[in-house]
Write a structure and sequence with these properties.
The complex is a heterotrimer of chains A (307), B (81) and C (535). Chain A has 307 residues and is mainly alpha-helical. Chain A has two domains: 1-70, Helix Hairpins; 72-307, Four Helix Bundle (Hemerythrin (Met), subunit A) (Up-down Bundle), CATH 1.20.120.80. In chain A, 68% of the residues lie in helices and 1% in strands. Chain A is built from eight helices and one strand. In chain A, α3 (72-111) packs antiparallel against α7 and α7 packs antiparallel against α8. The longest helix of chain A has 40 residues, at 72-111. The radius of gyration of chain A is 24 Å and the shape is globular. In chain B, α1 (2-26) runs antiparallel to α2. Chain B starts with a helix and ends in a 12-residue tail after the last helix. With 81 residues, chain B is mainly alpha-helical. In chain C, strands 2-3 form a two-stranded antiparallel sheet. Chain C is an all-alpha fold and 535 residues long. The longest helix of chain C is centred in the first third of the chain and has 35 residues, at 67-101. In chain C, α3 runs antiparallel to α4, α3 (67-101) runs parallel beside α13 and α6 (197-228) packs parallel to α9 (283-297). The chains are: A mainly alpha (307), B mainly alpha (81), C mainly alpha (535). Chains in contact: A-B, A-C.
């Protein structure tokens, strides 16, 4: 298609399929959470429809692109679209980082009696404003005000005197390794990018495979990390640190999964010869996404594990 | 101190990532170059940050989540550096 | 920019036939119409809920319903009007008008455009279905503060959360599409400062949407995990904080109110110059004012939270930052007035709505200024004064501009003229009833009547009675509006290509009923200059 023409696609069924898929997924999920027995299967059905829609829709776009139906203007529209989609992702993560910083700088110290919260000792007399476990209390401990703590989580043998954060989340072990893995994947992806720009297809494939492998390894270690943390008593239900920890790392892990799937698709497309040194927006978009996910992890590593 | 440096590096990483995004939007040869270069910068800075944090931890300059460890029970938490 | 000059051969096609046309469509006009009709239906549903609220409040004492159901009505009325009526209506206007105004054939990402509409009926359906669930619909107010929405909420809240997620997807995709359209599909000869103000305001609104909606998604996700997975974001017993919910919500919520008013500013900036027969006064200052309002909207959120026990320094900061917004908004109001100054004004229906917008929105703006004063807000907070304030900005602001835009561009959409006489009757009916409805609520609030309450003390009875009568009359006015629009679509007299002789804008250079794909060849520099507001 020449540069002198506008491209407007024909009608399409994919959006309505997507809407049906996503709303089925959500309705199933909500019912599942309320203990309705068909919830999980409806959820799975919705997920299947959604995945079907994505493969069908994106596949159609890829086909149109390789058939030369797009021009520079369409290409630029995709670039704008992808960029602002990623910006919306940034803002989504910002909400959870905001929650982490708010809890750390304001709500936890205030609960512990910081500033002029003079009522705190009366309301929360057994409260310890510490980060990881939040409250080293036996379940149902009676507070002075008559309320009970609803977030008891005490690992066996751990008391407030001997606990350190490293007991639960030790940045030296798996987290450091995982950071190294993701950073390495950023490096390999950069090499793949370089190879693509230089036109060395075999090298691209090698570096891309390495990137995907590192990403999958990251996910595997992340699952190990979760099981350790759960065994050691850091759960979603153990207060605000556990909440922010699992929310941030969980959504990050989800994005790594999506990124790895997208990289796999790109690998397939590289093998098919869809890209050349000058024309590879699909690769660039996914690469940028991967770098973004990588940076989110760095932020996590620094703020959740260390500072 | 490490914290301040880490935050500065993170901001620099975000700027590099943003420049890469602008390059991606621009497209074409110059945009592609811009994107690639800034992503190289962002990877290098990330490695630097990782080394800095791990080295500081190794030297004992920072303790994991120090901000919340020593908070005394029911009193104003002391300011940690 | 590319020098696009011709449409792809395959695309000299008209609409498909039958119902599937609307499901499959990738055409910005079809999708715009879908958005507008969806918004109108939701407006009528939300309005019906409001009638329920006013009926309960007609007289003191419990009249018609359980308090819980009353709370559901206020909650769902707010949610439906904000997310179901006002926002989709503006996206619909944007869809219809932006490609025509920037000299493009269609939106930049037409298939995604279809999806951003077709999510809405599903989201709206899920939201409305909560009325029929055990425990009733959400009843915690449209701001869904924790812990009302976490610990003490009915089960249907999870469905509400997912509906908000879906609405968020839709808005974000719509915003991405508008940015890509304005920045990439604009006619090659059109510079940014040639763009009509409606395009400018929507471009800036899109940035607000992409910045704010994901934060809302984050907030409801935290709500979801607090409710179902035992996290403690908004629970003080786990080290979280219910006030944190308010911070996150209003970080979304304050940009959100500008999302609902900036496109309205754009609409009014088109209509007033047309009927004052003068160029818009201060085009570039309008653009800069819009951008400043958008920027400021991100840094003032906690003025909704003066009573949560913020440090005094925080209260002062948020108070002064809020006052600052009055400056760019004032620039806009003075520009509209200066545009009318010594103009040859006539008062066709769109102009009536636009002029009354300027007057009534300014009232809403001033009461907002009063609420922004931290010490005074201690008195006004959560009273009917707040209700009066935001209904003056949202009903006589946002909704007014949508109705104005409908009458102004209806000839271009349908190729037919509406009935001017009936439209004037409708206008006077609506403007009198809306003031009878909302103005007494200022007095109720200042006298101390709290909002979201089904029963009240006897001293509030008279004003509530007046307000309810106004409410019923205002509600009935929409029956006439429905008739006027349907009458125009079916029996209207053919309109000219430029039904308002002094109107400027590329859309008026198209056929009387704009062709299916607006511009197959981009307009020339000469034409753009002729039709520019900035001249």
């Amino acid at each position: 298609m020449s540069e002198q023409e506008y491209y407007v696609p024909h009608g399409t069924y994919w959006p309505i399929i997507g809407s049906i898929g996503v709303s089925t997924l959500f309705v199933g999920f909500a019912n599942q959470m309320h203990g309705v027995e068909w919830g999980a299967s409806v959820m799975a059905l919705g997920l299947a429809i959604t995945v079907f829609m994505m493969f069908g829709w994106f596949g159609q776009v890829v086909n149109e692109s390789t058939n030369g139906m797009y021009n520079k203007q369409v290409d630029r529209s995709f670039r704008w679209g992808m960029s602002w989609f990623i910006f919306s992702e940034v803002m989504f993560f910002a909400a959870f980082f905001g929650a982490l910083f708010y809890a750390r700088a304001l709500s936890v110290p205030w609960l512990g009696g910081a500033d002029n919260n003079i009522f705190t000792p009366d309301l929360w007399n057994a409260f310890s404003a510490s980060w990881h476990q939040m409250a080293f209390l036996a379940p149902g401990t009676e507070l002075q005000s008559g309320t009970t703590m609803s977030f008891p989580a005490v690992p066996e043998g751990l008391t407030i005197e001997n606990a350190t954060p490293a007991d639960v989340v030790d940045p030296w072990g798996l987290p450091a390794l995982n950071t190294a893995l993701l950073l390495a994947s950023g490096v390999t992806l950069t090499y793949a990018h370089h190879a693509l720009r230089a036109g060395h297809r075999n090298q691209i494939i090698g570096w891309l495979v390495a990137t995907i492998a590192l990403g999958v390894a990251f996910l595997g270690f992340q699952i190990m990390e979760y099981s350790h943390a759960y065994a050691d008593g850091l759960k979603m239900t153990t207060g605000i640190y556990g909440s922010t920890f699992y929310m941030l790392t969980g959504f990050h892990g989800f994005h790594v999964t999506v990124g790895a799937i997208m990289l796999t698709v790109i690998l397939y497309r590289v093998q098919k010869g869809h890209f050349d040194a000058d024309n590879h927006f699909g690769f660039e978009g996914v690469a940028w996404y991967w770098h973004f996910v990588d940076v989110v992890w760095l932020g996590l590593f620094v703020f959740v594990y260390w500072l | 101190m490490t914290g301040v440096v880490a935050v500065i590096i993170i901001i620099a990483i975000l700027v590099a990532l943003g420049v890469g995004l602008i390059g991606m939007i621009k497209g074409g040869k110059s945009g592609s170059d811009k994107m690639f270069k800034s992503l190289v910068v962002r990877v290098s800075l990330s490695v630097l940050l990782f080394i800095l944090v791990m080295f500081s931890g190794y030297m004992g300059w920072i303790t994991p989540n120090a901000i919340m460890v020593d908070a005394p029970v029911i009193s104003t938490p002391e300011k940690n550096d | 920019m590319t020098t696009a000059t011709a449409s792809h051969d395959d695309h000299h096609h008209g609409p498909e036939k039958g119902l599937m046309r609307w499901v499959k469509t990738t055409n910005h006009k079809d999708i715009g119409s879908l958005y507008m009709w969806f918004a109108f239906i939701m407006l009528l549903i939300g309005g019906a809920l409001a009638m329920g609220i006013r009926a309960e409040l007609l007289a003191p004492g419990m009249q018609l319903m359980e308090p819980q159901f009353f709370n559901s009505l206020t909650t769902m009325h707010g949610l439906i009007m904000v997310f179901g009526a006002i926002m989709p209506a503006f996206v619909g206007l944007g869809n219809w008008l932006i490609p025509m105004m920037v000299g493009a054939p269609d939106m930049a990402l037409p298939r995604m455009n279809n999806w951003s509409f077709w999510i809405l009926p599903f989201a709206g359906g899920i939201l409305l279905s909560t009325f029929f669930m055990e425990g009733g619909a959400p009843a915690f107010g449209w701001t869904f503060y924790a812990p009302l929405s976490t610990t003490f909420a009915p089960d249907s809240t999870d469905f509400f959360i997912f509906a908000v997620h879906l609405l968020g997807f839709s808005s974000i995709m719509g915003a991405i599409n508008i940015i890509a359209t304005v920045l990439n599909m604009r006619a090659p000869e059109m510079k940014l400062m040639d763009m009509p103000l409606f395009v400018w305001t929507w471009l800036i609104t899109s940035f607000l949407l992409i910045g704010a909606m994901p934060v809302l998604a984050g907030a409801v996700t935290m709500m979801l995990t607090d409710r179902n997975f035992g996290t403690a974001f908004f629970d003080a017993t786990g080290g979280g904080d219910p006030v944190m919910f308010q911070h996150i919500f209003w970080f979304f919520g304050h940009p959100e109110v500008y999302i609902m008013i900036l496109p309205a500013f754009g609409v009014v900036s088109h209509i007033i110059p047309t009927f004052a027969r003068k160029p818009l006064f201060g085009y570039s200052s309008m653009v800069y004012a819009t951008a400043s309002i958008a920027f400021l909207s991100y840094i003032v959120w906690a003025h909704h939270m003066f009573l949560t026990g913020m440090p005094v320094a925080g209260e002062l900061y948020f108070m002064y930052a809020t006052m600052l917004i009055a400056v760019p908004t004032g620039v806009k109001v003075f520009n509209w007035i200066s545009t009318m100054w010594r103009g040859s004004m006539t008062f066709e229906a769109p102009m009536l709505w636009a002029v009354s917008f300027v007057f009534l929105f300014t009232i809403g703006g001033f009461s907002g200024l009063m609420l922004g004063i931290a010490p005074a807000d201690i008195q006004y907070h959560d009273t009917y004064f707040v209700v009066a304030h935001f209904h003056y900005v949202l009903v006589t602001g946002a909704l007014w501009s949508i109705i104005a835009a409908t009458f102004y561009w209806l000839p271009k959409w349908t190729g037919k003229m509406y009935n001017e006489g009936l439209a004037k009757v409708h206008f006077w009916w609506a403007i009198i009833s809306v003031n009878v409805l909302f103005f007494p609520q200022h007095f109720l609030g200042l006298a101390g009547m709290p909002r979201r309450i089904p029963d009240y003390s006897l001293q509030f009875a008279d004003f509530n009675y007046i307000s309810s009568i106004g409410g019923f009359a205002f509600g009935a006015s929409f029956i006439l509006l429905t008739y006027i629009i349907i009458d125009c679509v079916r029996n209207g007299k053919p309109a000219e290509a430029r039904p308002w002789p002094s109107a400027k804008g590329l859309e008026w250079t198209l056929e009387p009923k704009a062709q299916y794909h607006s511009f197959n060849t981009p307009p020339s520099r000469k034409l753009i200059e002729q039709e520019s507001q900035n001249s």
